[in-house]
Amino acid sequence: MIKSIIILLAYSLLLGPGDGKKKGRKGNVHYTQEQYEEAVTAYRNGISSVQESGPGQVYSGLLNNLGAALYRSGDAEQAGIAFSSAARMAMRPEDMVRASYNAGNAAATNQELEAALEHYRRALLNDPSNSDAKFNYEFVKRQMEEQEQQEQDQENQDQDQDQNEENQDEQQDQNQENQDEQQENQNQENESESQDQNQEQQEQNQQEREDPTKLSEEEAERILQALENEEEQLLRQVQKMKSRPRRVEKDW
């Protein structure tokens, strides 16, 4: 987990006369009372009062405190802008380290991880012993590596899914092609059988037209059966005549 923002309110920088310092001290009071929106207004008024004087410790301190109040009020994006400006305007290394560290935290909150690493790196270059900056640097770096790994895993998963879908589409196309081919072959076979049957029927009809006296198989069968029946009847009559006794005539 990211360590919290270092809140170093510029009390010492805002001591003494001056309208900007006075408004800055008013902002500090609001901040300590957790009245962050009122603190933001006071710090901005103070910045407007000293802005014309150019970079300086008071200017940098007000920008840092403005960033802290914005961050606490939930506006991490504007807080990061204020912290980055404070780091650029800092006159002392410790002020630059503090503002850079805070800018890193704001960037990390906005998931701007590369920017966060850069801010932490600047803080460590000016203060290698800053354990908070070092901890957050390593934390964000691991977070980036995990995100990259997740993105790679997701990409691989998407590629596998695309490949599976492509294979399924190819298989479906192949199955459809095989089915179409089988249907075409079946249609051709049916058409060929139909043509053969038609040809056979035509030949049979042609033969019947050429030889009208030729008996069909059924007609021949009927005639043969009739002849057999007549033959049997004739045989029975002959047998009956043979078995009948002859009349004996007397010769006188």
C-alpha-based Rg, rounded: 56 Å
Briefly note the CATH topology name of the domain at 12-139. Answer: Serine Threonine Protein Phosphatase 5, Tetratricopeptide repeat
So how many helices?
8
Give the mean pLDDT: 84
Any low-confidence stretches, pLDDT <50, length ≥5?
A: 248-252
Structural class from helices and strands? Answer: mainly alpha
**3D shape:** rod-shaped
CATH superfamily of the domain at 12-139: Tetratricopeptide repeat domain
Q: Could you state the order of secondary-structure elements as H and E?
A: HHHHHHHH
**Biggest sheet details:** none
Structure summary, number of beta strands: 0
Task: Report the helical percentage.
Answer: over 70%
Strand fraction equals under 5%
The span between the termini is 161 Å
- Classified by CATH, the class of the domain at 12-139 is Mainly Alpha
CATH architecture of the domain at 12-139: Alpha Horseshoe
Describe how the helices and strands are arranged.
Blueprint (H helix, E strand, L loop, with lengths): L18 H14 L3 H15 L6 H16 L3 H14 L3 H17 L3 H14 L4 H80 L6 H27 L9
Could you characterize the architecture of this molecule?
There is one protein chain. This protein has a domain at 12-139: Tetratricopeptide repeat domain (Serine Threonine Protein Phosphatase 5, Tetratricopeptide repeat). The chain has 8 helices and no strands. The chain has helices at residues 19-32, 36-50, 57-72, 76-89, 93-109, 113-126, 131-210, 217-243.
